[in-house]
Amino acid sequence: xxxxxxxxxxxxxxxLDGELDASSSxxxxxxxxxxxxxxxxxVMIDCQRLNYISSAGLGVFISHLQRFQDAxxxxxxxxxxxxxxxxxxxxxxxxxxxxVPTQQEATAV
Length: 109
What we know:
Blueprint: E1 2-7, E2 11-20, H1 25-33, E3 42-53, H2 55-71, E4 74-78, H3 82-90, E5 98-100, H4 103-108
Parallel strand pairs: 2-3, 3-4, 4-5
Antiparallel strand pairs: 1-2
Helix pairs in contact: 1-2
């Protein structure tokens, strides 16, 4: 999986490309653990090219939820493919995390 970064003054966007599984989740966890991530008001996750997410990948996001909330950082997912979105829905994570259809909506959240 590839992770591309784009940052503005208050928003970090991570674009995920490929499959987020046990091996690639380590890279994502490393990115989200960096102290400077908490300097942003919002972290947006572009899932347009995310083809698959495993429980390990979901675990990375879940493990950072409280840290982000405590720091006042909003985590927003957008451009999620139906098969990936279904995984979030089945596990009830769509009620814990902000998932919107488009980048424009993610920016407005």
